[in-house]
Structure formats: structure tokens, C-alpha cells
Amino acid sequence: MGIHAFTKLLEVRIWHDYLLFAEKLPPDIPSRYDVTELVNIVPSEKTKTILESYNLLFRPTSTGFVVLAKTIGDEPAQTFTIFDEPVKLSFLIQGKHPAFPVMTNLPLQGFTKNLLYFNNLQSNVLNIENKVVHYISTPLPGYEPGFKYQMSDLIRHGNKVYEVIDIPVENPPKSAPWAEGKNTQYVSKADRVLIGTGMFDYEGANQNPGEEVIFTIRNSFGEGVFEEKITSPEDPEEKVAHKLRFRGKAEELYSIFKDEALVGRVYFLDPKMFSPPLGVIELFHTPDGPNMPVIQSGYRYIDTGQDPQAPLSIPTGRVYHIHFKSRMTFWRYVSKEGEKTLDKPRSFSMTFSGVLDENNKKLPDPDLSGIEIEKQEIDDLVKEKYISKIYI
Question: Does residue 3 contact residue 70 with C-beta atoms inside 8 Å?
Fold first, then answer.
């Protein structure tokens, strides 16, 4: 018999700029950083059973969590329980700080109807200070001329993240109205999915009047769960509308396809869950073979080796990253003399900003008790300006 030990199978590190000093970037871990001030991470009930059956241990950390695997043998040590079948480990991000939605650059609207969804099925890799960083959020888009950007939208341009701080946007980054940020991949609204309610309403253009339309539902492994067929209206001006009913579906992500085109994603939670989480992290292992999601080599937490006829089960110790950006708001100082709003927005942070008045006196930072949204119509856009009021 070989010697049993526990080896790191995988690790997830969650970063939030509210807790980070400006100069710190993943994958470095600053001293005194503790993401559990903002969120808790727990395995789902189904994952708890998987962890036990595969001889795995879940351990929270100040930056997220690690999963340890019981191994056997010398180098390279293999897992005690061989990963020879598809495995999905699901972890719930539970809100702990009541102001998490306020401090985070994500739309406030629909926060309770959506959750954040992260997985290792896509590649989102950056090289930061000669260190390879594997993100499991959706890659941020690049700059697109003519696109109708909204306030707080994020893009990547020239190895930096830029945020929209005014609209309309008519010029590329490195000029107004953009705020330059870090070299990272932030969580964005592209990472949100609807929380399943038993019904999915589809409405779209009638591209093929009078013809058959096929709606297919696939689970997170890409397997077809069920499909429904309808006939589109004869009138090309009448939209295609259909209600898909989800009854008794297992806890996981479902993708809805219309004639093989993705039209929506919903995540069904355990019906016994008291309140929905902020998000879900799902980490997949799929043996090489047909009809299985392809996991890029850099995102695998099990190395199966080079011989398909004699697959291995070696923990890679892969580290996955999730990075939240602090919300930027326009700070408005209110006193008995009147109101003064700073010209440029500033980010929420635990560190003092050092704003000074005309007499070089330090002014207070805003708290997280709440923000106001001022709306202004500009052409065919609605400008939503986040305001933090500070009474002095």
C-alpha cells in the first residue's frame, strides 16, 4: 500500500477591490485581506455528498476556499478515489455584508432575480507581472466603436480595464469619459443568470413565418433534457412567443436554445433553500470523450495524463480567480451652505480616500448605507448616475 496524504486539488480566490489596496493585484495575497468579511462560501448539499465519496476535504480560506484530495503513491501522487466519471463541484456564494450590492460594480436592478455564475468551462487567462492568472468569470469585451455604452460598463483595452463614467461614449479609452483601472478581469453583468422560477418566457423576432421552431433545454454538461416544438405565426410582423415550463428540474444551470441558438440561461436552486445565494461556482471534471464539455488544460483540476487507454487521476492544484470591482459613485457633499458634487466618480474602499476641501481639511468618505440614482434621458439613452451623499 502507498502512503496516504492530502494534496491540494483546487483553490478558488475571490478578490474585491473594496478590501484591496490600489496597488495590489491577484494573485498576490495582501496581509489582513479577508473576503469572509463580505461573503461566505459553502458547498451545495449535493456537492457535500460528492466530496465525501471522492475523499475530498473542503476548507475555507481568507481568500475563498481550497479542496484537498486524499492521494496515494509517490510522485506524481494520484487521488485515492479515481476521477473516471464526469464530476461537477458546486459552491454557493452567500452574501454576508448587507451592503455587498451597493459596494460592487453590478446593476442594482434585478439583483434578487439573478445570481452570478462562474465555471471552469471557458478560458480567461491573463499574465500579470509574469504570473499566469486563471479567471472563471466571463472575459470582458474590448472597445467597440458605435456601441451604446451605459454608465459603469467595463471593457478591456491595452492591458487595462476601463469603466464608463459618462455617456454618450464617442471615443476609445484613454480619453473622457473613461476611468482607467487595473490589469485584471472583473466580474460583470455578463456573469449574471436568471434564477429559475418554473417558467421561462421567450419572445423574439419571427424570422421564418409558418415554420417549425424547436426549443431545446440543455443541462450544465450540455446534455439535452427536453425539447418542445411549436409553429411560428404566419404573420411575419407577429413575434414568436412561447412559455417553457420547468417542472421538477434538478439544481443546476439550464441553457435554452431556439433552433440551436442560445436565447437564455436559468439556474434552478434547491427548493429547500431559505434564500438565494449571491452566486454559484461550478467546477467540472470531464473525462476525454464525445458529448462532454471541453475543459482547457489550464483549467483542469485533474491531470489524466497522455494515454487515453490508461488515464491517470493526478491533482493539478489549479487556482481559479474571481475579481469584483468596487462601485464608483459621484460624491456629493451636503452642508448648510449648499451642495457640492465632485467632478469625477470615486470607488468605495476601506482605505481613506484623502479628499480635501479648499482649506486642505480632510473630508469624510461616504458610507455604504445607500446610494441615490439620478436618471437623465440623453437621445435614446438613459443615463443613470450613482450619487453618494455625505453630510458635513
Answer: no
Residue 197 neighbours by CB under 8 Å, 6+ apart:
none
Instruction: Count the helices and strands in the chain (H runs, E runs).
Output: 2, 28
> What is the Cα–Cα distance from 75 to 58, expressed in whole angstroms?
23
- Judgement on whether residues 334 and 258 belong to the same structural domain of the protein: no
| CA 139 centroid distance within chain | 10
Query: Does the residue 147 lie in any domain?
Result: no
Alpha carbon distance 26, 109 (integer Å)? 29
Q: Is residue 24 included in any domain, yes or no?
A: yes
* Predicted pLDDT at 128: 87
The continuous run of DSSP H or E covering 69 comes out as strand 64-72
Q: Is residue 13 part of a domain?
A: yes
Burial class for 142, CB neighbours closer than 10 Å (0-12, 13-18, 19+) = exposed
Number of domains in the chain: 3
Residue range of the domain that includes 385? 328-391
13 and 80 in a single domain? The answer is yes
| Residue 86 CB burial class (10 angstroms; 0-12, 13-18, ≥19) | middle
pLDDT at 240: 93
In a shared domain, residues 282 and 382: no
Quick one: pLDDT at residue 297?
Answer: 84
**Burial readout 35-68 (b: 16 or more C-beta within 10 A, e: otherwise):** beebbebebbeebeeebeebbbebeebebbbbbb
Residues 19 and 109 in one domain: yes
pTM above 0.90, yes or no: yes
Shared-domain flag, residues 318 and 332: no
Segments of the chain with pLDDT less than 50? 1
Residue 170 lies in a domain: no
